[in-house]
Amino acid sequence: MMLYDSHGRRIEYLRLSVTDRCDLRCTYCMPEGFKGYEEPANWLTFDEIERVVGAFARLGVQKIRLTGGEPLLRRNLAELAGRLSSLPGIADLSLSSNGTQLAKHAQALRAAGITRLNVSLDTLDPARFAAITGRDALASVLHGLMAAKEEGFGPIKINMVVMAGINDHEVDDIVAFCGERGFVLRLIETMPIGETGRNAGFVALGPIRERLRSRFGLVDGVVPGGGPAKYLVSPDGRFQIGFITPMSQHFCETCNRVRLSVDGTLYPCLGQNDKVDVRALLRSGCSDEQLEQLLLEGIGRKPFKHEFDEDPAKVVRFMSSTGG
Ligand code: SAM
Ligand code: SF4
User: What would the DSSP string read from start to end of 271-282?
Assistant: First the structure.
């Protein structure tokens, strides 16, 4: 089964938020003192998540990424991961994490079938880490990364959101850090999602890409499973840097994903406000056919593109509540 939206794009990827809570407060993501969390009674239970993912899988979605908020704050996440990775049709289960709790959970998550891991890391300077995230937790993240490497996660990708005057001077240090440890680096442009995203110090990545290309002798490359990132690779292919440029070079025409937030809202596009309430149907005692029909309708309503340029104030929810 293959699933297509109304613009002919194949949809094969679900980003599944398992919590909207987080132990960090990255300046570009969540506002300080944020209180607008979803009530636990509205969180999809593991049974409900398994049912929705099963329906997505029957429709043709093969790849699931657990995200949040910080997914490792959801209790018994490894149990959920094990249930999802053994569903028929799910070929790939991955995780995005801020890494603070990774050391504790890496073994159980790997055993539960998660293979690919993305960890956010915007700086290697402890004081700057605290300034960006609101917590003095760089050492825990680095410890978590090493634990994940020992457990055999692969690839491990480092997501760095590049911000003007905050960490843009650290790009080369993070390139070296990733190169030495075998991590794939992805540089990300800030998106105007919520007030936080709009005030984050946008930097277009094009000039940085060209500088890194000549400094490290990199060439254009294709990375399997690389998603929307455009990659530069070393001539032997061993080192890879992805550039995620939703603002300066949008990639909506190749978008293959939808998002489900912890309260069971389906967001067909990160950069638009369209949404579908899946939880209400699930809790009304629906049949599998009704559930699949609703997911198809939601995917059918996937907008063609974001309007971050035309209408930067449009998306008022925060990345942590949609599921980044
Ligand atoms: N807490 C986990 C983490 O930090 O990786 C997973 C959720 S987080 C919302 C997912 C990704 O979204 C992270 O790589 C983060 O850097 C990115 N992100 C959050 N807000 C953003 C924004 N306004 N613009 C661009 N990327 C953003
Ligand atoms: Fe938390 Fe991730 Fe958002 Fe940072 S980017 S506040 S770690 S959800």
Answer: TS---EEHHHHH
Ligand 1 centroid–CA 29 distance in Å is 6
Which atom of ligand 2 is nearest the CA belonging to 98?
Answer: 7
* Cα–Cα distance for residue pair 19/91, rounded to 1 Å: 23
Q: Is 237 helix (H, G, I), strand (E, B) or coil?
A: coil
Burial of 25 (0-12, 13-18, 19+ CB in 10 A): middle
Domains in the chain: ranges and CATH = 13-322 (3.20.20.70)
Q: What sign does the CA torsion over 145, 94, 258, 74 have? A: negative
CA–CA separation, 187 and 208 (whole Å): 10
107-111, 252-256, 257-261: least confidently modelled range: 252-256
- How would residue 322 be classed by pLDDT, with cut points 50, 70 and 90? confident
pLDDT above 90: percentage of residues in the chain: 82
Tell me whether strands 219-221 and 230-233 are parallel, antiparallel or unpaired.
antiparallel
Per 3-state DSSP, what percentage of the chain is helix, strand, and coil (rounded to 5)?
35, 15, 45
Residue 24 near residue 137, CB atoms below 8 Å: yes
Residue 275: pLDDT band with limits 50, 70, 90: very high
Three-state secondary structure readout of 169-196: HHHHHHHHHHHHHCCEEEEECCCCCHHH
Cβ neighbours, 10 Å, residue 238:
9
Q: Is 66 in the pocket of ligand 1 (CB under 6 A)?
A: no
**Distance, C-alpha 137 to centroid of its chain:** 20
Residue 283: pLDDT over 90 = yes
Q: How many other CB atoms sit within 10 Å of the CB of residue 284?
A: 8
Coil, strand or helix at 318: coil
Residue whose CA is at the smallest distance from ligand 1 atom 23: 197
pLDDT given for residue 225 in this prediction? 73
Q: How far is CA 176 from CA 102, 171, 180, 189, in A?
A: 22, 9, 6, 20
